[in-house]
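Each lists chain and fold; for instance:
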Amino acid sequence: MRPAVLALAGVAAAMTLSACSVRDAICSDGEYPVHSIGGTGRACVSEDEEPPKEYVRYPEGKTPKMVDDKWDIYWRTHTLDKDGNISKAPEDE
């Protein structure tokens, strides 16, 4: 193969790999995610604050960190009550 073709193939491979491995964080540095009570929404709260009254913290070990990670996907179809109990989210959410 010609060097130019090899170089282009390398660039294409690098772009493909980097696009698959880079995801956005759920919250910015200094914040943590909270889940809406009875819904599937979320928000980010400053680490030095408690969640607003209509939100709760995620259960330990089930907090989404990155967009489309395991827990981000899970919480799209599940919800929490004010005590942190998990249930299936209503279909119309």
